Protein: Beta-glucosidase
Amino acid sequence: MNADKIKELVSQMTLEEKASLCSGADFWHTKEIKRLGIPSVMVSDGPHGLRKQDQKADHLGVNDSIKAVCFPAGCATAASFNRDLIKEMGETLGNECQAEKVSVILGPAVNIKRSPLCGRNFEYYSEDPLVATEMAGSLIEGIQNKNIGTSIKHFLANNQETRRMSSSSDIDERTLREIYLAAFEGAVCRQKPWTVMCSYNKINGTYAAENKTYLTDVLRNEWGFDGFVMSDWGAVNDRVRDLEAGLNLEMPSSSGINDKLITEAVRSGRLDEQILDRSCEEMLNIIYRAVENQDENAVFDLEKDHEKARKIAEETIVLLKNEDILPLNPGCKIAFIGKYAKKPRYQGGGSSHINSFKVTSALEAAGSLPGLVYAQGYDDARDEVLPALEEEAVRAAGSSDVAVIFAGLPDAFESEGFDRSHMRMPDCQNQLIEKIAAVQPNTVVVLHNGSPVEMPWISKVKGVIEAYLSGQAVGAAVTDILFGRVNPSAKLPETFPLKLEDNPSHLTYPGEGDRTAYAEGVYVGYRYYDKKKMDVLFPFGHGLSYTSFSYSDLTVDKEELDDTDTLKVSVKVTNTGKLEGKEIIQLYVGASSGKIQRPVKELRDFAKISLKPGETKEVTFTLGRRAFAYWNTTLKNWHVLTDDYDIMIGASSRDIRCQKSVRVNSTVRIPVIYTLDTTFGDVMENEKAAAAIHKFMEGSELFASPEEKGESDVAAEAISAEMQEAMMRYMPLRGMISFSGGAMTLDKLEELILEWNRDNINR
Structure:
């Protein structure tokens, strides 16, 4: 239905009908208006599977949802760094939604992984906003290619579960723009999700649902979002204020209570009815887009989609460590140890929990191997060491050629609704790994977890595989990698620190009471660890392969450019090993001078390519203004500082293979207004002002050397040239009055400052 017809339809609605459209009919449906033929549509939880429930359902999934397919969670899909693969996953999910008459799937979730402790990190993509927005954009594109809407979430700065419905995320403007808004920006601007879900929390003291700055000024006016904004379930605080801010749809139903508040506000004149009309138009635009593009022939093929989940999982599993142990020889005697070998943990708890129609375990996938034995080893339900299970596992490991331990985090350690209190795995698992490594030198650990964990046993095992939470087919995917049927190609979308205390948010997470200070600013994840030159367990972007790759011939199409130009960067990558494999090439940019506080390097693009043994491919990136920019709070815009910038190509953030420097010139001048408190050093950048200051310095005894003043050697030792230079650089202009011996008056200085400011404005 076109915009004119939608406006006409809204004009026929009563005030009560308009208000009713602004809240759900129940947990999962919008309201219909039978009199005008306006249909109801269904939304459903996602984002890594279809969690469709009936009208009696509950948000957190205590009641069953339909049997469906659980794909890898966000923590895993981000590790693929494969845009095309995630787009295919989206198309599969979109088709499932069409078959089940679901119009909008709630996801993807792109909140930044600020701390490893966030209980919902398994749903989120990365500590890096580029990875988050690129992966989200690919999933959105795939789903919406099937004419199913997405709801990118949780907007904004929802990075913890502790007090998530009341806590305020207190973040400075630059950090919001460069990290937390940037995770949404690319996907919203390019892939245009049909809906956005606002978060529970406050941003700098104002609830997300009533935050006009972000819901309207940024989201709609700046980014061009043209869908509707829905609340997270129960996130509405003040319905009228929320509507004014840009929140269209309250979910779930408020049983008419908040609808009545809207009608009363319009009748009393407190709410402009045009705001309500516009909200209805934005709602109906999406409702009719969904209804008019329903595919009645769509079929949900569970088995076919299970196999798709397996193929995706194979590219989400990261090989972290390999000391000539992997791939395994299927003919040797192998012990599979650990509860997760038989019953894998493949998804997180909460609103994204999928009712999987089947689950493939590693034991099931490898069960036909003649030399395979299994021992449970632990029961982490209560995190207690059970001697009988442990002893059985140690015996099995000691009598085998290789031990593969399946471990990780149980649901009790990470889930929606609560944050982790530490970064450790269960004690019973850590102890088991230590004991098995003591009797079996050929030990491999396979991890099932949604966030980084500490690995006190890392030096005692030969191999580590990070399986993340890779969906219902994870067991088949893991065994394919263990035995070399698939060459691992995933890399970490987050840093694994050595210990929790190393994390930049450690001192302020999760905050005090209802306030959380994001004191680390832009230094999130690798931006912090690299700036501090800190050792980490595994760096951002790290991941091994069963083959090897070399990088060469880095070229840039220009060595100097304006910020209005684009820069083409090319590099050749060669498979120098004996197996076909995929490599993720990462492009980082870093400013050289340090004129402003910035990370050492920031990921600005990436590409994943497949190479046969001996094959070379050239990868080309195009960098625009944003690749060199930071958010300037004076300009309220992205700004490129004139500087030399390092273009770095790496296999991880700590494995830079080649590098070049380019000069980027700014075409935008930052306006400068001088005051009495402006320092001499800052003013010296203005030629006219610098001349006046030099003249003042020549006539002031304060800046004369001890020799010029005829002072003793003792005075010269007390007042060095370096001290004088520093005093001058950091002295406020008002100091000219104190140290001029009466030559500079307040009136004269203010007249000079006015002249310099006029000069700045006219430049």
Q: What stands out?
A: The chain has a mean pLDDT of 94. The radius of gyration is 30 Å. DSSP finds 24 helices and 25 strands in the chain. Residues 273-291 form the longest helix (19 residues).
